[in-house]
TrEMBL record:
Signal peptide: none annotated. The keyword rRNA-binding does not apply. This is Nudix hydrolase domain-containing protein. Residues 3-205 form the Nudix hydrolase domain. The lineage of its organism: Bacteria, Bacillati, Actinomycetota, Acidimicrobiia, Acidimicrobiales. One of its GO terms (molecular function) is hydrolase activity, acting on acid anhydrides, in phosphorus-containing anhydrides. Its cofactor is Mn(2+); Mg(2+). Keywords: Hydrolase, Magnesium, Manganese, Metal-binding. It comes from Ferrithrix thermotolerans DSM 19514. The keyword Ubl conjugation does not apply. It comes from the Bacteria.
Amino acid sequence: MVTPKSASTVVLLKQGPRDSLYVLMLKRNVALEFVGGAYVFPGGKVDVADSNPDLYARCNGLDDSKASELLGVCKDGLSYYVCAVRESFEEAGVLLGSVRAENLGDSDLSVLRSELNSGKVTFADMARKLDLVLDCTQLTYFSHWITPEGSPRRYDTRFFVAEMPSAQDPGADSGETTSHIWVTPSQALESHQEGRFEMILPTVKTLELFLEFSSVKDALAWARSQRDVPTILPKLVSSGDSVEAILPDNPAYASSEEVYLQSARDIPL
């Protein structure tokens, strides 16, 4: 069994016309082994460098003790928040923070994003250059998923929700992600049911949580009210000639044997 890697995911929301709520989704490169071609929220693996003390010192509104308490971990809970900010910028070009350095424009941010994604600079390097403040108050933790034991690639993922910053325009990184779309949860789920919008189970279930909300304000208020966030561990089971993921509340969960996949490409979408 593969040990899951720590990860963060960010659900970015914006207010749409006629009391509608929109979610930012990215399409993963079809060439990727892990859920290639699927629509996802920005996010990724927590790096060792995400616990850099300099980055921690730049976090506004949260220290490691409080972040660890919120996430139910012993230490370095703040690294999940740092990862959420970093991945939002790397994958979607959305910066959840404020730049204090002077004489820096959008073109400078674009260059730094390219250098960050290519490995020419680290996120800590970028933060120092921008004199960046990471605004952890924008991120609300509300969900926790672990990839099934039968997957050859596994993640222990904390889900955060945030409002899309004004005066920013998202964009795919043209590497891991190839396009982006603003979509209502109902539109995404309907398209998924019709086979036109591939998503994995945690993405589907997360969108379902936001179906009842018509405003960003109400959605964020609900997320902030969550206490004792449960850990959700799906199971991969045989379903005829295919494999499907089922949740712990499924009556067959306890009695079904886990199916162990050889390739991450076989994870059901």
